[in-house]
Amino acid sequence: MTKRLALIDMGTNTFHLLITEVDGSGNRTDFVRTKLPVRLGQGGISKGAITPEASERAMKTLRDFRRQIDEYGVETVRAMATSMVRNASNGEDFIKDIYKQTDIQVEVIDGDREAELIYYGVRSAGVLDEQTALLMDIGGGSVEFILCNNQEIFWKRSFEIGAQRLMDQFFDQDPIPDASVEAEKRFLTQQLQPLTEAVARYKPTLLVGSSGTFDTLCDIDALSKGDNSRQLAQPAASALAVADFYKVHQELLHKTHNERLAIPGMLEMRVDMIVLASILVDFILQQYDLKEIRVSAYALKEGVLQQALEELK
Fold it and tell me: Considering its fold, how many domains does the chain have in total?
């Protein structure tokens, strides 16, 4: 018995669409796997509302997603909205509008549920083992932290400190000045106090990153070594040496927008936000003394897929 499913992840910065078919044995065939820079949070995240321009970009993208969903004769559609929509004063109207224009029913999920779904997605990438990991997913609006291993979640929490929010707060000069880097780290120390307490209790030994930031860091690192196999293979799980992360991190800190854009592997939609996200990664590695980074290409939408398949059984 084969099933066709479409999973939509409406992030604050990026919208993802996965159209896949799963057979009775659980084997997956992906037909569409796409991510688009909708920038739903742009211009409005710090004011707590989705701007008309951002809303129009989202509708245009979702109308196109609907066309592809119909083209592939999909039976089950699951769409999730996260930080930007759940915190926007006009989030509810936006969701109603989407349904009116595209017939896509969007579920707005809270931070706790988002963290749980990310865990299931990352676990399905095969990147976790019996060691306790600190899993981090950097979005535009929120960042999810999950202390876990391949068997269970020990602790999870979503913090509204995503890269778009950090950018609005700390990125007023380019390249970013040292004073702004320090200001961001002071802010993180304060905001992440609950995580610091949980880390002291569960003692993770490695960092597992999921999200576009980590994919881009891995792409930049691989291409700097003349290795373009990542682009071709798009592995579900990768490793990023801490020393290699720091080489990329230093480049990001000291280059301007146009210089960063010229880095092989850089995506235009991440060129500014990645600076703030990279400072966050550096903070986590230093603060919690983590010596290993693994990267999962799977995150929220794959977690939704895992749960949807459970429900279909």
Answer: 2
